[in-house]
Amino acid sequence: MKTGKNNPFKGRQFTAEIILWAVRWYLQFPISYRDLECMFSDRGVQVDHTTLFRWIQAYAPELEKRVRPHLRMTTGPWRVDETYIRVKGEWVYLYCAVDAAGQTIDFLLSVKRDATAAKRFFRKALKQSHTVRPRTITVDKNAAYPVATKAMKRAGEIWRFAKLRQLKFLNNIVEQDHRRIKCPVRPGLGFKSFVSASQTIAGYEAVAMIRKGQVLNAPANDMRAQRNFIAALLGVAA
Fold first, then answer.
1. What top-level branch of life does the organism fall under (predicted)?
2. Ramachandran category for residue 80: left, alpha or beta (phi over 0 → left; psi -120 to 50 → alpha)
3. pLDDT tens, residue by residue, 9-63
4. Which residues pair with 163 in a beta bridge?
5. pTM of the model
6. Sequence-ordered strand ranges (E) for 45-153
7. Are 40 and 47 in contact (CB under 8 A)?
C-alpha cells in the first residue's frame, strides 16, 4: 500500500483491504449498509453500518475522481436524459449523458430541472477529458434543453451546427443507464442529504463506467481485472 499524501487510507482503524471490500461491494451491488454490516460480521469483521456509511462518503467521490483519467474517449453523438432521486423526502434530478455505444459521458445531480441546470450539466460534461464535442444531442421533450443549447451555441460553448433532437424513443440507452443507478439506490430507502447523495452517486457512476468496460485494462466482463484496477487506483495491493 502507498504511503504519504497519496494514501487515502492513512489513519484508518481498519485495513485498506477491508475498506476497499466495503466500497466495491456497496457500489456494485444493491445492498444496504446494514446488509453490508451483516456480511462483514459473517466473515468475522465487526464494523458498524455508520462506519460503512462514512467510508462510502470518503471513498466513492475519490474513486470517481481517480477513474476519470483512465476512461476511453467517447463518441460524438450524445444521448441525454434525467431521472428522479429521492433526497430527504424530496425529489431531485440526476442528469446523465451517454454516447451511442452507451459509454458514460457525464452525470450531475441537480435540485432543479430547468435551462440553468441543463447548461451546468452540459458545461460539466464538455470539460471531461474523455469527451468530444457533440455533433447531435438527443433529449426528451423537456423544454429546457432547446433554451440551454441555443444560449450555449450563441456563447460558442457548443458547436453551432450541433443538432438537438427531441426524440424520447431514441433515448432507451440512457434510460437503461438510469436503471443501473436506481437499482443500488433502492435498498438505502433514499438519501438523507444532497451532499451524501452526490458523493454516493459519484461512486455508483464510477463503478458503472468501469463495469461497462470504459477502462482499457478492465474489460466489461472481467470482475477480477476490475477489482485489481480499483485497488490500484486507491493504492492497495489486489
1. Bacteria
2. beta
3. 887 889 999 999 999 999 999 899 999 999 999 999 999 999 999 999 999 999 9
4. 136
5. 0.90
6. 78-87, 90-98, 104-110, 136-139
7. yes
